Amino acid sequence: MEEMFGLVGQMRAVPGKRQELIALLQAGTGDMPGNLLYLVAEDLDDPDAIWVTEVWKTRTDHENSLKLPAVQDAIAAARPILAGFGTRAEMRPVGYSG
């Protein structure tokens, strides 16, 4: 049986486009099989940065989500306003209440 999979990563929008990036991510991630949490948060110290926290039933569920049409569309729409990525960490969640 596959273990749960999680990741936390920072993304940076081009200046002034953070809210647009957040909207695109939220629109493309509404129905992803195996997803237990998809949290988008504003970085309080950087007006162009966001953090995304994801918890999945399995790593395979996460990998499969990247093939979903809505996710592919969100990625394509976000590329022009994405300035880069910051810290990223993968993890194995060992407890979950939701």
From TrEMBL:
<dbReference type="GO" id="GO:0004497">
    <property type="term" value="F:monooxygenase activity"/>
</dbReference>
<protein>
    <submittedName>
        <fullName>Antibiotic biosynthesis monooxygenase</fullName>
    </submittedName>
</protein>
<dbReference type="InterPro" id="IPR011008">
    <property type="entry name" value="Dimeric_a/b-barrel"/>
</dbReference>
<keyword id="KW-0503">Monooxygenase</keyword>
<dbReference type="InterPro" id="IPR007138">
    <property type="entry name" value="ABM_dom"/>
</dbReference>
<dbReference type="Pfam" id="PF03992">
    <property type="entry name" value="ABM"/>
</dbReference>
<keyword id="KW-0560">Oxidoreductase</keyword>
